[in-house]
TrEMBL record:
Pfam families, A to Z: mTERF (PF02536)
Entry-linked InterPro entries: MTERF (IPR003690), MTERF_sf (IPR038538)
GO molecular function, one term: nucleic acid binding
Superkingdom per UniProt: Eukaryota
Annotated protein name in UniProt: mTERF domain-containing protein
The keyword Transcription regulation belongs to this UniProt entry's keyword annotation: yes
Family to which this protein belongs: Belongs to the mTERF family.
Organism: Trifolium medium
C-alpha cells in the first residue's frame, strides 16, 4: 500500500465518517476499497438515509446487496415509526403529557 493512497482514506474515515480506530482495526480491508468509487458514494447514501452500519456491511458487498440492505433498513425504520405514530394517535393525551395512562382492570 502506498501512503499517498492510504492517507486520504484514513482522513475521510476519521474526519468525515467520524469512525474510531477500533472500527478500522475490525475491518482493515477498508483501505482496499476506492475512496471515490465506493467509500464516499456509499457513505453519502447512509448519511442521507440516517443509517449507521459497520464498515464491513457498508463496503464488503455488491452494489445490489448494498442497495437492498439500505432499502430494508429504511422499510424497517418506517414500519417502526408508523407503529409509534399509531400508538400516539390511539393515546393522543400522551403527546401532551408524555404519559400513557391505562385504566385499571376489574
Amino acid at each position: 500500500y502506498n501512503i499517498d493512497v492510504l492517507r486520504p482514506k484514513y482522513k475521510y474515515l476519521r474526519r468525515t465518517m467520524v469512525r474510531t480506530l477500533p472500527d478500522l482495526i475490525e475491518f482493515p480491508r477498508f483501505f482496499s476499497y476506492s475512496l471515490e468509487g465506493r467509500i464516499i458514494p456509499r457513505h453519502k447514501v447512509l448519511v442521507e438515509n440516517q443509517i449507521n452500519v459497520k464498515l464491513k456491511c457498508m463496503l464488503a458487498c455488491t452494489d445490489e446487496e448494498f442497495d437492498k440492505m439500505v432499502k430494508n433498513m429504511i422499510r424497517k425504520r418506517n414500519k417502526i415509526q408508523s407503529s409509534v405514530m399509531k400508538a400516539n394517535t390511539t393515546h393522543p393525551q400522551s403527546l401532551i403529557t408524555g404519559d400513557i395512562t391505562t385504566t385499571p382492570q376489574t
